[in-house]
């Protein structure tokens, strides 16, 4: 069985990759910069599509916030019983929402926009890995419930 410490460290590293990825896309979107795609053609198409914003907020900024929240929670996890028991569940919830939204966005890229953004794929992989790691952590350390 994989130790929880390794899973937590893996989660931190993956969240840092997702944070850097979404930070770059957020910067490009907010400051109207061309996304450097290195041979991939769809980054600009996807980043300039109407699906790149929700209510005027860049999707990349939402991703940045999610990765930042996950990192913040993981940092708090060792600060007491409340955090150690609740952070794995909270990370699971955030990553589940992220995976579902990422699946929707991937569908939009493939079926509607007909373009793939390399950075979006990196983020989709990162949030999927965080989701898997969160499940592994919950399996390794089931939530303790009080009996009445």
Largest sheet: 2 strands, antiparallel
Task: Specify the CATH architecture.
Answer: Up-down Bundle
Described by its quaternary structure, the protein is single chain
Supply the CATH class: Mainly Alpha
Report the CATH topology name. de novo design (two linked rop proteins)
Q: State mean pLDDT (0 to 100 scale).
A: 91
How many structural domains are formed by the residues? 1
Shape: elongated
Secondary-structure blueprint:
Blueprint: H1 4-30, H2 43-47, E1 53-54, E2 57-58, H3 59-76, H4 81-113, H5 118-140
Antiparallel strand pairs: 1-2
Helix pairs in contact: 1-3, 1-5, 3-4, 4-5
Mind explaining what this structure looks like?
The protein is mainly alpha-helical. It has one domain (4-140): Up-down Bundle (de novo design (two linked rop proteins)). 72% of the residues lie in helices and 3% in strands. It contains 5 helices and 2 strands, in the order ααββααα. The protein has helices at residues 4-30, 43-47, 59-76, 81-113, 118-140, and strands at 53-54, 57-58. A two-stranded antiparallel ribbon has the order 1-2. A hairpin with a 2-residue loop joins β1 (53-54) and β2 (57-58). α3 (59-76) runs antiparallel to α4. The radius of gyration is 17 Å and the shape is elongated. The mean pLDDT is 91.
Structure in a nutshell:
The protein is mainly alpha-helical and 148 residues long. It has helices at residues 4-30, 43-47, 59-76, 81-113, 118-140; strands spanning 53-54, 57-58. A hairpin with a 2-residue loop joins strand 1 (53-54) and strand 2.
């Amino acid at each position: 069985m994989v130790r929880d410490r390794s899973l937590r460290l893996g989660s931190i590293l993956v969240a840092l990759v997702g944070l850097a990825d979404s930070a770059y896309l957020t910067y490009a979107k907010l400051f109207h910069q061309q996304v450097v795609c290195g041979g991939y053609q769809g980054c600009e198409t996807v980043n300039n599509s109407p699906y790149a914003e929700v209510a005027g907020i860049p999707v990349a900024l939402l991703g940045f916030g999610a990765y930042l929240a996950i990192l913040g929670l993981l940092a708090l996890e060792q600060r007491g019983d409340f955090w150690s028991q609740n952070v794995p569940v909270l990370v699971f919830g955030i990553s589940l929402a992220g995976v579902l939204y990422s699946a929707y966005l991937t569908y939009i890229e493939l079926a509607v926009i007909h373009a793939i953004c390399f950075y979006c794929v990196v983020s989709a992989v990162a949030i999927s890995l965080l989701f898997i790691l969160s499940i592994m952590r919950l399996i390794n350390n089931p939530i303790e419930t009080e009996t009445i």
